Amino acid sequence: MVKLKEVLESCQEEYFLPGNSCCAGCGLEIALRWAMKALGHNTALVTPASCLNVVIGLWPKTAPNFPFTNMAFAAAAAAATGMEAAFKAKAHRFPNRGWDEITALVFAGDGGTADIGIQGLSGAAERNSNIIYVCYDNEAYMNTGIQRSSSTPHGAITTTTTKGKERYKKNLPGILAAHEIPYVATCSISEPLDLYDKFKKAKSIKGCKYIHILAPCPPGWGYQSEESIEVARLAVKTGTWILYEVENGIMTLSKKSKSLLDPSKRAPLIDYLSKQKRFSQISEKDLIELQEIIDHNWERINVELSCQEQYLK
Ligand SMILES: Cc1ncc(C[n+]2csc(CCOP(=O)(O)OP(=O)(O)O)c2C)c(N)n1
Ligand code: SF4
Ligand SMILES: [Mg+2]
């Protein structure tokens, strides 16, 4: 894994500037800053309706220090695909001017990805469009007042699930992996070097890349702004959020999640939930159910890794 010193030495430039209107401790901002450190200035970003649309501010004082396109909610993946096609056409018409070195990137929320944007994303994945699609997952529609999305976890209170969500979190990285695209990865803002490495790798791969980042949101989840990293870290430590990559169909657990295949190594789930007001009404039954979901997710990964091992022998 890359060392912090190397990142700081190789990339001192900030691509998402201070003075933006993110809430203090916003997970999305941390995710975008680190992703851009890995991708560098040759990047054009598309963002559908979301917090990110808004926090960039108004021209001429916008925060992104790189090309940034606000897009309609459902159309981010299609827009990035079109952009990439335009870069390719430009490269053909004007060779050696760097047009073919630009990365077309989407940064979309969980609502814009798991719900309204999923058909466009599935289309781009099926076409194997040469883009990086990122879902920053704050597990609700934060920009419009914390409504539940299909990525909100079971038991979480939102303004549309006032007694806690009944249904379960959609497995978006799993759905994208089933599209058999060259690269799928999960990240957490608590592991920025892991995130950096995954973006560097995604940039080097041709075809459709999907990266899903857990990006906690202080007002939406109900914790103090200085606790974002700790909350994200607990999501990983408890096994609630699993860090992995699927490269050309081969799954690898990332460093911080590897040892957690053994259930005894996982921190108690309550350590994660008790930090957040959105789980303040959680019942004993829901707690057991959430733990069962986590155990089931790990079991699925265990089976996947065992099958892979047999296949690769
Ligand atoms: C077609 C359409 N429907 C609804 C909206 C209103 N809207 C804007 S942002 C947003 C929430 C987006 O949620 P998510 O994608 O999770 O991003 P977050 O706000 O959490 O960053 C909604 C519903 C819209 N802009 N366009
Ligand atoms: S509401 Fe949440 S996601 Fe939106 S800017 Fe604030 S902290 Fe970030
Ligand atoms: Mg969201």
Summarize the structure in words.
The chain has 313 residues and is α/β, with parallel strands linked by helices. The chain has a single domain (4-312), classed as 3-Layer(aba) Sandwich (Rossmann fold), CATH 3.40.50.970. Helix content is 42%, strand content 14%. It is built from 13 helices and 8 strands. It has helices at residues 4-10, 27-39, 51-55, 76-93, 110-115, 118-127, 172-177, 192-204, 218-221, 228-237, 255-258, 269-273, 284-312, and strands at 43-48, 68-71, 103-109, 132-137, 183-188, 209-214, 244-247, 250-253. It has an 8-stranded mixed β-sheet with strand order 2-1-3-4-6-5-7-8, sandwiched between helices. Helix 4 packs parallel to helix 6 (118-127). It is globular and about 65 Å long. The two termini are 26 Å apart. Bound molecules: thiamine diphosphate, iron/sulfur cluster and magnesium ion. Thiamine diphosphate binds next to helix 5.
Question: How is this structure best summarized?
Answer:
The chain is an alpha/beta fold and 313 residues long. It has helices at residues 4-10, 27-39, 51-55, 76-93, 110-115, 118-127, 172-177, 192-204, 218-221, 228-237, 255-258, 269-273, 284-312, and strands at 43-48, 68-71, 103-109, 132-137, 183-188, 209-214, 244-247, 250-253. Magnesium ion (MG) binds next to α5.
